[in-house]
């Protein structure tokens, strides 16, 4: 708990930087608009203003600075504008509305969770296979490691379109990508976890005359729990990123990714930014949820969470 | 039908060969260790080829490996141009900017225990966020050429490298720091001779996570606007022309580039952290 104040300080610094950046980023747009509204702008010709940097323009037009925080179509929206947009689209809209971020969030979250469950399940199964079968270890494990260096996420949109052209639509294609992305972190982490009991512990079970199955349930699986949770946290955020990227350039109509792109294309930066922040909050909530489960589980199992 | 049977036969043969090799007497031989995954990979490729031919899968859905290989050879110059635009200009420059910025911030923040405690949780939180979603925003701000890709990449690699560097700089024991003090070493000698070297395993961990992120960022950002060259551009346009073999050729290039980038980082890591238990 002693890190609450430092964390808040860093967050405040980030928001402060954001607040400062709003002024130069929007200054040119605001100056143009102000001139059209009949306000005084110091370099009067628009061509001259293009020569001056955003900071310079702000210094010579200090009276315009408040306007940069309330511009309708800013290049960089101010934090409170994004907060207001978030509030409007989550709390004030009915969740069935096409403009509600809760609705879009669910469209993104459902395939993420489905894919995550599938990917994690298959990943654990493969990890068990790798730990107990030398052939699988030798032939599959190197590929599992190499596959993590491949930018497969960049191809997510293509997978969606290919499956779409085969007539497979809806939740499944996106879950496939989410499953793929959570699969390999879980495999690699679980293999490490299932192998974490040392020779001494395995020997002890052998002196108890424990069978392989008992060894698995009573020693290997419990020992792998901390590794499992570490991979689950990586996997869930990878799944969410995968679903969002899959929605981005494919012409998806709903979901966080689609929202970001719609705001970008129709000149409504606030919509994009609200979707971006909402996605960030969702990711944080999911990772936080797993941290909580991790802490509770490890505590009950008697493994002190570090 | 004959193709499918052949595919099954080859699969069984490949698996049998691997069982023999992996459980055989020389299974800890380096050659066998490389041979087994190689046989597995080649078997998958052959089975893919045979199944696609056997079931006459439409090349618009899944091309054969041989068609992809043909593309790789015949479209060499174009693929090379795409590689330069996306990997060299976009990913590499962004990676460099992001990594240097992360080092700078980490070393500055490291001077204060207070800031370190704030940056670690916030940074690892930011590293889990879907930062790649900022790609459309950066393309709008910085135009469609490689600068916007470099910016997306820089932001994406910044947080993992920052968190790992800050965590690494904390990884010295009191004993070691006291030893430096008895030598009369001030802040800078301690940083350069003790704390940075002992942070290197952490730093390289961050750098290796960054390699994949850099390629993802550079390619995804090209989907939102790019000059008429680049891997992301080629993937999306070839896709529009239903030239899936070209898309796969770009995927192969991306995979090779990703593995090579990671491999180079691992090599440098081996050189720099030769003293670390994991490298001995």
TrEMBL record, chain A:
Gene3D superfamilies, per database record: MetI-like
Protein name: ABC transporter permease subunit
Residues in ABC transmembrane type-1 domain copies: 101-294
Segments traversing the membrane: 6-30, 103-131, 143-164, 176-194, 270-293
Record bears the keyword Oxidoreductase: no
InterPro entries (alphabetical): MetI-like (IPR000515), MetI-like_sf (IPR035906)
Family statement drawn from the similarity comment of this UniProt entry: Belongs to the binding-protein-dependent transport system permease family.
PROSITE patterns, per the entry: ABC_TM1 (PS50928)
Record keyword Plastid present: no
Alphabetical keyword list: Cell membrane, Membrane, Transmembrane, Transmembrane helix, Transport
Pfam family, one: BPD_transp_1
TrEMBL record, chain B:
Sequence ranges assigned to domain ABC transmembrane type-1 in this UniProt record: 94-273
Pfam families xref list: BPD_transp_1
Cellular compartments per GO CC: plasma membrane
This protein's record includes keyword Transferase: no
Membrane topology listed for this record: Multi-pass membrane protein
UniProt keyword terms in alphabetical order: Cell membrane, Membrane, Transmembrane, Transmembrane helix, Transport
Main location: membrane
Database matches in Gene3D superfamilies: MetI-like
Keyword Methyltransferase: no
Location of this chain's protein in the cell: Cell membrane
Sequence intervals crossing the membrane: 34-52, 87-107, 119-139, 151-169, 202-225, 246-268
Gene Ontology biological-process entries: transmembrane transport
Name of the protein in its database record: ABC transporter permease subunit
Organism: Sulfitobacter sediminilitoris
